[in-house]
Specification:
Rossmann fold; globular; four-stranded antiparallel β-sheet; seven-stranded mixed β-sheet; 249 residues; alpha/beta
């Protein structure tokens, strides 16, 4: 069964612009916890700080918090895009991340070539990708553009291709960033149906969202964060009520 265990996880993101005094002063004031290193050579943004939690089979977890609270950083850490600076993340099961559009796509490759590369990167065999290639291509609705290198694509076309590749894999663990987007409004409804289907078939879902109505409908647990810290975790409605009290204070 799928499972996620995080123990004392911190993620520090260095910014090597040590000549910018205004950048240093700004980061020292914001809630993500930027700080100057001991050598004063670079700024370190402490995006996640000492997070520990467990997510088990059947859990649908909503990540809540203000912008800069660390929600997207946590999703990217669970997806393996960021490595913890300290602590450990143990994951059992195949992870499908629906995060930033276009991550991992190769500019000089055609749409079809990116379908193959993306499927292989997600853990599918070459034969599995080829068996699904036409279905993925049809879902994108990009037609002959799939023969062209993606550096000529619009942002919406890239979003369609990226989304179609990511959602072609059967997930054990589904990671969703609410701000992913998937092209124009006409395509968005089709994409939402695909996500709903993935949600039903996944063992675990973790989503970063500001939509409390959606979180109450789909998530059995919630984890609010602030400044990279995990405040608490528990049943969704109880956590939302406690979080609103926290914001009021």
């Amino acid at each position: 069964m799928a499972r996620i265990v995080a123990q004392n996880v911190s993620v520090h993101l260095p910014i090597f612009d040590f000549n910018s005094r205004s950048l240093k002063k700004t980061l020292l004031r914001i809630t993500t916890g930027g700080r100057i290193s001991a050598e004063s050579k670079h700024v370190v943004v402490e995006a996640l700080r000492d997070l520990s939690f467990e997510i088990d089979h059947g859990d649908r977890v909503g990540l809540i918090g203000r912008n800069g609270a660390g929600k997207t950083t946590l999703l990217r850490t669970l997806a393996g895009i960021y490595r913890p600076t300290s602590g450990t993340v143990s994951i059992e099961g195949r992870v499908v991340p629906l995060l930033a559009v276009g991550v991992g796509m190769i500019e000089e490759f055609s749409g079809y070539d990116n379908i193959l590369a993306g499927g292989l990167h997600a853990g599918l065999s070459r034969d599995q990708v080829l068996a699904q290639r036409e279905e993925i291509a049809e879902f994108t609705e990009l037609g002959d553009y799939l023969h062209l290198p993606i550096h000529v694509y619009s942002a919406g076309m890239r979003a369609r291709l990226s989304f179609a590749i990511a959602t072609a894999v059967q997930p054990d663990i589904l990671l969703i960033d609410e701000g992913i987007g998937a092209g124009d409004a006409g395509f968005a409804a089709k994409a939402r149906r695909r996500v709903d289907d993935l949600l039903v078939r996944s063992s675990i879902m973790v989503i970063a969202s500001h939509d409390e109505g959606w979180l109450n409908s789909f998530c059995n647990k919630a984890m609010p964060s602030e400044g990279g810290h995990l405040l608490y975790a528990g049943p969704t409605q109880e956590v939302l009520e406690a979080y609103h009290r926290h914001l009021g204070q």
